[in-house]
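dumping this here before i forget
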Amino acid sequence: MAVSPSESENDAEAMVSALLTASRLLVAVSARSLASVEEALTLPQFRMLVALHTRGPLSLSMLAAELDVQPSTAMRMIDRLVAVGMVLRGTVPSDRRTTLISLTDTGRRTVVEATERRRKEIARIVDAMPTARRRELLKALHAFAEAGAEPSAAPTALPAW
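structure:
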């Protein structure tokens, strides 16, 4: 039995609507987890910290590309994060013209703590789902993340500071 183009379009639209609803939930979870750790940090700034946490120190241009923002926008975000002690700005020893951005211990701890809080809240939501639905969701989310080229959010341990 073949699926007609209109059925396929309806399925795609239903998927987009479901993902938009789920993304609103996830943004709310993210905002709550971030506010409980660091009230002054915006979601875009946190996204920068996460990029540095997962990728390691990056040049300004690589960080801007990673976040899909202009270098001038990334620089303003970096300035704010330097001011609150979350990132450091340095240079590459072999090329003093290249600015290298890295996390401080405070920035790293902020990412780990906010991610752990988010992980716990998402686990609470997942626990409320029927087991069979969880398995379906897992497969779908892996495919979705792969299609969007998003790196895995593997669990991270809190450092022993």
